[in-house]
Design goal:
With about 500 residues, this protein is mainly alpha-helical. Strand 1 and strand 2 form a beta hairpin. The relative contact order is 0.13.
Amino acid sequence: MPLQIGHVSFFLVTWLRACRSLDYDRTCLVLRDCALGYNTSGKLMNEPDVRVKPKISEDLWAVWLGVGLALVSLILVLMFGDSLKGWINKPGEWVRSPIELLDDVKAGVPVWASTLVSLSVVGGILAFIFWTESQTAKGLIAFATVACLAVAAMVLAGQEVIKYFNLEYVLWALLIGAIVGNTIGVPAWIKPAVRGEFYIKLGLVLLGMEVLMAKLVVLGLPGILVSWVVTPIVLITTFWIGNRLIKIDSPSLTITIASDMSVCGVSAAIATAAACRAKKEELSLAVSLSLAFTAIMMVVMPLLIRVIGMDDLVGGAWMGGTIDSTGAVAAAGAALGERALLVATTIKMIQNILIGVIAFAVSLYWTTYYPEADSADGQREHTPGFFGEVWKRFPKFVLGFVAVSIVASVIDASGPQGSDLIKQTIDLLTKEIRGWLFCLAFVCIGFEMRWATLAPALKGGKPLLLYIIGQSINLVLTGLMAWLVFGWLFRDAIIEWLPK
């Protein structure tokens, strides 16, 4: 045990030194200057034609802190194993009153205690950044306030009826943040913890732990055909329809909706919105559409599959490739049976691997065809050459996502013990922390939403029409591919592979 603790201490010291190197002295100065209202040139931030760089530092923080958190989580699970069970968690289900949660216990740990520990982990990460900005006390007080609103969103999402219809915490976090932002407003003293993009990027880096390349081996070619062939076709087609036929004014809104609907819902929308620098209200609108249709599809699709007598393997593949949320896919698959559940969730996990690929592709496309995006943010245009521009605008968090995914995949492929370590790390630590990060992010996004800003995005019902058309195409193409692959070409091999 002393040797293991020594290894952990050595890792933490090395990691912190790495964070403080790589020009981080300058990064810290930039962050301090931004907090005081100045940019890196020493001029006031409200002066025109000045490029401010806080977003780049956010990406760097997300990569280093996200990778570090993933590695620390692996080490902790390796050292303490199942004794960590229940300590990182979120409020559970309740029926009549949220007061019921005070008596709720998971794995021997009161839910209120695990919630406090979970948010303390995130707060500890933020404390490191607050420290570099010389506002540790103010920042932690602000974070505690935002965290209370995130807890309220999680509690609302746990109500029995709401949970059944899969109205996730993301929706409630948006609503709570928007209500606060549109009524009493966001006090200045809360602003240090209002870091929606950072929470999102850090959460996406942790998501890499759950997107394992080894999942491709499980269903191999059949899963790739359903997940990797149909999805890009649907995304590109939907984007083209939105721009050329429906003529939505904002290309970033169109691509965010297309990615949200074709890949995996909230996570894909977040990654794509970051890659194309979509407005916060556009991301909120895309996520709201996704959550609404996910709640409908997870209930309707299993019933439809049973009514028309569709094979359970084909039905599972169809749902896995079309329902946006992984949780909703699991619920819908379970309604059809164990075989459908296994196929549906595996298809969805293979599809999730596309998140980083699509974020990179969107960033490259936006750099080439929408170079004015920088000036739209009120920043000075700067052209360091094509590849320099790609790197400047490339979402660096994708590198962290890929790094964590590769490390997790290598460990998972090392044998049963490695696979168990990854599964434990996800179940005990990273998945729940990621959920809290996304919840905090959408509370912050809600703060900055204004009801009036949603009106142009909803103009003429075009986003809703785009989602319906895109999802219809997705349902048809995925259904045909699922029948071709799971009902005919590879059916015998898949049945032989499935657990008896």
